[in-house]
Design brief:
about 450 residues; alpha/beta; 3-stranded mixed sheet; 8-stranded parallel beta barrel; binds D-gluconic acid; TIM Barrel
């Protein structure tokens, strides 16, 4: 309805991740992680781009914080590169790496910007990978010790932490399709075991953050999914969309793309029964103790939401995906524009898991260019934002949604697509490291200022 409003304390932010922006990959004692190694291999990434320099945020962070301030951003979600603070993944601490994040955090606080720190946005230290990485059950301790270090060094000033970012992707793309680092196509059963270890590592990190936090922390988790939204507001279509959202894919090679396998254990302490049956022959040993560790209470449910599927109730009483019409709107990276996902997605997620929701990522890539007038005009991004945030506003009247982080603060290294996709509110000229606020950045600034009343 027109009366929908965001809560007055709604958090407006933007997000990035370390490898995608920092650069300085061999500087000040940083260790190598799987993306450092993977991107050096010929043919892995679009035109063999790497994150070696990226936005050189390591040296430009003050300027970047200044731009955030100018945009009126209240919160900044960034990640810590595990290998920058623990070059081997465990053991010796790299004080210069710690110093970098300390300087960034202090700069944010000085500018009244609240830091939201992600522990794992895919920078698995290469030394740990060589020891089996996610397949080695010891990763639970490694990740726990890393979380403890983060709590000890940063939680006097940082209150908000997310453990894992998008386990669906780092297992699915990293170890099933091999499109992402480390570029492995592992047997199915290995991927289930890695997933189980990752969930345990999440639980361990929550315990460590709580135990060593220097203040009462807000701890969350940030998975992703393609959302489902109903074709009409009839009770049947809504039920169909809900059912489709929480069911598990039939195609096992796609098994990681779902909500329930990754969130039921965290919130309910059990895997969905449907999956225990479907995937039975691939599963590792799962104990009650494991499930207890995985289901540590958390405070925030982060969700990276980009698009969704329209669903209606079929004649046979089963959910049915509605085919998109010809010429359906899409972004530069070819993802469909489906604003409804920001209304129905968070509603369904909140209904099931009853935990405050943060949209930890949402955004799009556009074919942005610097125009003859020296500005970057990105009407498609503004249109996308207006539509998606309008839908999110509706959800905020029905579910406990606390914040929104736009992906991304600035153009950056888009994984296998390299620099060919521009997701930023800020344009980056990679030849000069010049930053230019796009039109959408000014639009977002005004939107934030009015808490969505436009
Ligand atoms: C993530 C995302 C980001 C991407 C963004 C656009 O895992 O959080 O992959 O890192 O850059 O989603 O694809």
């Amino acid at each position: 309805s027109d009366k929908a409003k965001f809560p007055s304390d709604f958090v407006w932010g933007a997000a990035t991740s370390s490898y995608q922006i920092e650069g300085a990959v061999t500087e000040d004692g940083k260790g190598a992680h799987i993306w450092d190694i993977f991107t050096r291999e010929e043919g892995r990434i679009f035109e063999n781009h790497t994150g070696e320099i990226a936005c050189d945020h390591y040296h430009h962070f003050k300027e970047d914080v200044k731009l955030m301030k100018e945009m009126g951003i209240q919160a900044y979600r960034f990640s810590i590169d595990w290998s920058r603070v623990l070059p081997n993944g465990f053991g010796t601490v790299n004080e210069k790496g710690i110093a970098f994040y300390n300087a960034l955090i202090d700069e944010l606080l000085k500018n009244d910007i609240e830091p939201y720190v992600t522990l794992y946005h895919w920078e698995l230290p290469y030394e740990l990978y060589k020891r089996g990485g996610w397949l080695n059950p010891q990763i639970v301790e490694w990740f726990g010790d890393y979380a403890r270090l983060v709590a000890e060094r940063f939680s006097d000033r940082v209150k908000n932490f997310f453990t894992l970012n998008e386990p669906q992707c780092f297992i699915g793309l990293g170890f099933l399709t091999g499109d992402h680092a480390p570029g492995v196509q592992a047997p199915l059963r290995d991927t289930f075991e890695m997933a189980h270890n990752a969930l345990k590592a999440h639980g361990k990190a929550v315990q460590m953050l709580r135990a060593y936090g220097k203040q009462k922390l807000c701890i969350g988790y940030a998975p992703t999914a393609s959302m489902c939204y109903p074709a009409t507001e009839s009770a049947q279509d809504i039920e169909a969309a809900r059912t489709a959202l929480f069911s598990l894919p039939a195609d096992k090679q796609n098994w990681t793309w779902n909500v329930s396998w990754w969130s039921d254990p965290v919130f309910f302490g059990q895997y969905p029964k449907e999956g225990l049956v479907k995937y039975e022959k691939y599963l590792p040993k799962i104990t009650d103790e494991d499930m207890k560790l995985i289901s540590q209470p958390i405070d925030m449910y982060g969700q990276n939401i980009y698009n969704g599927q329209c669903v209606r109730m079929g004649k046979d009483g089963k959910p049915e995906f509605v085919k998109r019409y010809e010429g359906f709107p899409k972004t530069a990276i070819d993802w469909p524009v489906t604003p409804e996902c920001l209304n129905w997605g968070p509603r369904f997620l909140y209904e099931r898991y009853q935990t405050p929701i943060y949209i930890t990522e949402n955004g799009l890539s556009c074919h942005d260019v610097v125009s003859l007038d020296g500005k970057v005009h990105d009407p498609n991004r503004i249109d996308f934002l207006a539509r998606y945030l309008g839908e999110l506003k509706k959800a905020a009247t029905a579910a406990d949604i606390r914040g929104y982080f736009h992906w991304s603060l600035m153009d950056n290294f888009e994984w296998s697509k390299g620099y060919s996709e521009r997701f930023g509110l800020i344009y980056v000229d990679y030849r000069t490291q010049q930053r230019i606020m796009k039109d959408s950045a000014y639009w977002y600034r005004d939107y934030i200022k009015n808490n969505g009343e436009i």
